[in-house]
Amino acid sequence: MSPATPRSGKEIRRSFVEFFAAQGHVIVPSSSLVPDNDPTLMFTNSGMVQFKNNFTGVDTRLKRAASVQRCVRAGGKHNDLENVGHTARHHTFFEMLGNFSFGDYFKEQSLTWGWQWVTEVLKLDPARICVTYYHEDEEARQIWKKIGVADKDIIPIASNANFWTMGDTGPCGPCSEIFYDLDPSGKMYGDRPGTPDEDGDRWMEIWNHVFTQFDLQKDGTKVPLANKNIDTGAGLERIMCAVQGVQSNYDTDVFQAIIQAAAARAGVADYHAIKATEQGVSLRVVADHLRAMSFLLTDGVLPGNEGRGYVLRRIMRRAMRHGHLLGVEQPFIHSLVPALVGQMGEAYPELQRAAPMVADVIKLEEERFGRTLKQGMSLLESESQGLKAGDRLPGEVAFKLYDTYGFPLDLTQDALRNRQVEVDLAGFETAMNAQRARARAAHKGSGDSALADVWYSVQEACGATEFLGYSTLQAEGVVQALVHNGQRVASVKAGETVQLVTNQTPFYAESGGQVGDTGSIKGAGAKGSWQGTVTDCQKVLGTLFVHTVQVTSGSAHEGDALELQVDVARRSAIARNHTATHLLFAGLREVLGSHVVQRGSRQDDQLTRFDLSHPKGLTPEEVTAVEDFVNQRIWQNLPVVTRIVDKEEAVKSGATAQFGEKYGDEVRVVYIGTPESANLVTADLCGGTHVGQTGEIGLLRIVHEGSVSAGVRRLEAVTGPVAYQSFRTDASLLKEAASGLKCKVADVPTRVAELQANAKKAAKAAPAGGAVDVSKLLGGKQTVQGMAAIVAEVPNADSESLRVAVESLKGSLGSGVVLLGSHTEGKTTLVAGVTKDLSGKLGANALLTEACKAINGRGGGRPELAMGGGEGPVASALAAGRAFLGA
Fold this sequence. Notes:
Elements: H1 9-22, E1 26-27, H2 52-56, E2 64-72, E3 74-75, E4 78-79, E5 93-102, H3 107-121, E6 129-134, H4 138-147, E7 154-157, E8 163-165, E9 170-181, E10 203-216, E11 222-235, H5 236-243, H6 253-266, H7 271-274, H8 278-298, H9 307-325, H10 337-344, H11 349-383, E12 392-393, H12 395-405, H13 409-416, E13 422-423, H14 425-444, H15 454-462, E14 466-467, E15 474-484, E16 487-489, E17 491-493, E18 497-502, E19 504-505, E20 519-525, E21 528-540, E22 544-553, E23 555-557, E24 561-566, H16 568-592, E25 598-603, E26 608-613, H17 620-635, E27 640-646, H18 647-652, E28 666-672, E29 682-685, E30 700-709, E31 712-719, H19 720-741, H20 748-765, H21 774-778, E32 782-784, E33 787-793, H22 799-813, E34 817-824, E35 827-834, H23 844-853, E36 858-861, E37 865-870, H24 874-885
Parallel strand pairs: 1-2, 6-7, 12-13, 14-19, 33-34
Antiparallel strand pairs: 2-5, 3-4, 5-11, 6-9, 8-9, 9-10, 10-11, 15-16, 15-18, 15-24, 17-23, 18-22, 20-21, 20-24, 21-22, 25-26, 26-31, 27-28, 28-29, 30-31, 32-33, 34-35, 35-37, 36-37
């Protein structure tokens, strides 16, 4: 019994993977929408992006691979945003099926497998298929004939649409495409490729095969490559459209599940009855944009005002405006996430895991934009009321919508689209520049006079740095600016230190008490390659990540491509200390009381420092209790979860803000323990980097407690390997003390207590010399070799009493030497002392050694004080000592 023909999106996706796995392909999971190996791309926009290093030969581990890659085209030159909802096939988010060969198989196998999967697995009618080839690629034409495609259905294309190039020079090659006829009846507009009506929707491209076989030279010649590659791409949404027998991608099952859920919320009973209306456009926009925003959020992109974050915000707010057009005034797009997960969660488990966070962020953005959407639309309607087709909305009005009401420019353009009214873009830019000038003047007047003017121009020219460091410690980038000695420069050479700005970075810039990352950097450009060491990363003007780089070889230039690598071990240690800081704060409030407030903190790779408000020093018992609280939570291995929420809501819900930090309307909250559960330990506003589970911290030890100022205490703590080493060091010292006290480690406290008790007892029982009558001994002072000397026996004195007496006699002599001995409990004890002025030529340790030899004893010490003993009579030892002194 043959397997059923795949029909649903899930089945088609699965069948593609299974088919190419059977052909010996390694199935590679989809990479993130944020490319980590191509800094020139804002988003992953094709299946081949993650295989860049395989195509260039840098990575030779793979020979053949297949993937289902999530893609976004909504920024830069790859931007389908404005067409979404108005056409049958434009999307911001789509899935690209692809098979790839890196110097392995070539045209015949690739085209044959493509034909087999389309006609034999998916059962698409060959009579409804035609193929194209680059008009000079006779090899491809012959392969299609061999496969069985009729001559009339093999169409030569002379344009560059069927010839792929990477750039003006470099790898290139012809393409061959598979097209499918959506409407053999001919009612649908459009015709075959290569005809005047090829742009119609009837004939739909479903698969493109690129044959990378040449190296394009500057003079236009094509040199054959030694290793030829295959790069194919089949849009899943188009394949579904063909297989499911519909004429729009939005009528396929994956989209319909979302559209129907949205229609239900909007009170639309039958989408198909209104699909040609503006309501239909709005439902399609919401469905498409939900997919894009959900996967971007899953891959770590958050709504913001710069870079990827701003593209995401544009997508979200465009969807929200269309929700408003549907008559839904309350936040609802977040409620559609389960419908999306139901369709795509099986293929993308990361979407399932991130779904709660995705819904939370979408809802937050809906609530924030909902506050101004209605007002902004009212302003737009009133300002454009008299405009007719061909007119322009003043740029300052578009800017006010952008600046005051949060309307991205393209949202305003989209709102005016049906009326054929445009926006005065030059006027918009003039208003934008005026706002930048006001912001610069305001910042200069804020007291930050030390900030060099150069950074304002860098910020305006480069925009915000995209921070990737929450999800990766390695990334590629492009040098956007070099600043040396306060001046922007085009290049720097080896041996120089430069401040470098790149378009994106995994390096954390110092903020919130957490120090900046360090690591390494490699650059390459038209003038050669270079290397450097990143010694610091600081945030300037709130958006620029400025890397301090020591160039170690070569010369760095603006525009160079970069490989950035954070010091992994150091970042891990910092993350341990930062998460431990949050636990420490929670422990302090638990043990000391809710009056405890953070007054400052700092986390580096060695320790965490935490300043707190508290009127008195912590007792040893309180310190131990705080340590116990923290370590118990560490050993529970609690999850560390981050969410983006509204600042006011975060504070109202009990999230703690960091001392001295400034926050925007949206904040990142770090939860230790599961949010909204009994095991939640703490929730804090924090932009720092953290461990994923508390167990990664390993261990915490408080190593210092002291005063900073009146009412402010400071704790310093170590974690992980540093904490372990601190315990080892103390254990080693304890063993050394036990050895010196001649007792077991466990008995050290008892032994020390005994010695202290004996010393107190001796001090009470005797005059200034302890149990020894020092004044009597002073009466026996002699002069030996020009030195004052006291050599005497003391009856029934222990070593501590003798030591105290020797130190006292040294003080009384001012300059001289002392040797005392006593015989108690069958043993002779000796103590020798020499004043500091004489210890350079006569050491107490040397004197003691000679005295001990006479009684078969031993001892040691310093030039100023030495102690020892033996079995023989005291008189013999003292006699040896006198002889040594020359008496």
